[in-house]
Design goal:
Growth Hormone, Chain: A; 2 domains; single chain; transmembrane helix; transport; 14 helices; 412 residues; mainly alpha
């Protein structure tokens, strides 16, 4: 299942990049490109809640399988539109949103299935494998998209994704039926309200959501990368690519070296420390930007030859650190969610978690955009890093149950 989802995810990331390139080719508008993700945001949030409800009501294998069929059909539609030379953007928006909705339901179902396949002590390792998969997806997928679009065109690029996505079925079809254990509620608003009510009574799970929202709100500097490449460090698109890949490299390395994390019992404390370290690396990235602003102003160009190489290296190290720290936090947060939540509630809580993961980065982009526009490009990560460290220390200090959470006696 892991191998199939990883291969399919590489193809999906490839298509995400290719769709952006095709929309820009058709419209020459950055706003039109940004709308590809924006139009899918609300459907993805709703799909997280709805998909979680379905995973708690029906055979999770069947839910994942039907969703995979929908996602594959959407990918096939994107490829068909390219081959038929349909030069309008609305089919791309529609099919991309449909693909994102189906992928969200697949992910929600898959995460609810994992605790039924593995013993509790191996759940951190499964979360680490997920980090490896994500690292591979966001590095290999976009790189393949650039090469394939330039070399063989959009039609063949999307067709490659259609073939790669077929791997997702291998992992799902070979699973046994995975029906929820315990009381099963009929799908509907009452089921979703019951899930939200459970979250209200689950301080440890709720705290894991809150700390992630804090990290993503004040510690997501990706929207700054174009300005950093153009104005502060220089190097243009090459710098943007390096900075974007640095976080994924940190995620991948931390997953490969994560074996000892499975022995950590005080996972609440570990989450707090990991996010505090994340904030420290964000602060370090902001310090690099502040240094180039005040001590190395000007003299940068859009070409890579004009980049401040030392600043770029240090900034990349800082971002690799954020990727590693965020991944460690994600390993423990995922383990807590999967082990502390009853089986018949895992789908709905995973759906709410999907909403948090989807919405947090968008709020973070808004914070970064407003703060940089009103003040300076270097200020959002500097202020954000300080806020993350302070808020996490405060919350962990006063949330006693989270601070004393024991992985060998998981309590939601």
């Amino acid at each position: 299942m892991w191998l199939g989802s990883t291969i399919a995810g590489i193809g999906s990331q490839m298509t995400v990049v290719a769709v952006g390139l095709q929309v820009y080719q058709l419209t020459h508008s950055t706003f039109a490109v940004s709308m590809v993700g924006t139009t899918a945001l609300v459907p993805m949030v709703l799909a997280g809640l709805y998909g979680g409800m379905l995973a708690d009501a029906f055979d999770r294998r069947l839910v994942a399988l039907v969703s995979a069929c929908v996602a594959w059909a959407a990918t096939f539609g994107i490829a068909a539109a390219a081959w038929l030379q349909i030069d309008t953007v609305w089919p791309l928006y529609l099919l991309t949103a449909l693909n994102a909705v189906a992928a969200t339901i697949i992910g929600t179902s898959r995460q609810a299935i994992l605790p039924r396949l593995l013993p509790t002590d191996l759940l951190p390792a499964a979360a680490a494998l997920n980090g490896i998969a994500i690292g591979a997806m966001v590095t290999v997928g976009p790189a393949l998209a650039g090469v394939l679009v330039a070399g063989i065109g959009f039609g063949w690029t999307y067709t490659v994704d259609v073939l790669l996505f077929s791997a997702a079925f291998l992992g799902i079809i070979t699973l046994p039926p995975v029906r929820p254990e315990g009381e099963v509620q009929r799908p509907g608003l009452a089921s979703i309200r019951y899930g939200l009510g459970f979250l209200k009574r689950a301080p440890n799970v709720r705290m894991s959501f809150v700390v992630d929202i804090i990290a993503m709100t004040f510690g997501r500097p990706h929207a700054l990368f174009p300005a950093v490449g153009a104005l502060l460090i220089g190097g243009g698109a090459v710098t943007v690519g390096i900075l974007t890949a640095a976080g994924a490299v940190g995620t991948l390395l931390s997953s490969l070296l994560s074996g000892r994390l499975g022995h950590v019992r005080r996972q609440g404390v570990a989450i707090g420390w990991a996010i505090a370290v994340y904030g420290l690396f964000i602060l370090g990235f902001g310090a690099v930007l502040a240094y180039t602003t005040f001590f190395e102003p000007g003299n940068v160009t859009e070409s890579f030859d004009g980049a401040h190489t030392t600043a770029l290296v240090i900034a990349s190290i800082m971002l690799a650190g954020t990727g590693a720290a965020d991944n460690v936090s994600a390993i423990f947060r995922t383990t807590l969610l999967q082990s502390a939540v009853p089986d018949n509630m895992r789908g709905r809580l995973q759906g709410i978690f999907t909403v948090v993961v989807t919405g947090g980065p968008r709020v973070g982009d808004f914070y970064v955009g407003v703060t940089a526009a009103l003040f300076a490009v270097w200020l959002p990560p500097v202020l954000g890093g300080i806020l993350i460290i302070a808020l996490i220390a405060l919350l962990v200090r006063f949330q006693r149950t989270f601070r004393h959470y024991d992985a060998e006696n998981p309590v939601p």
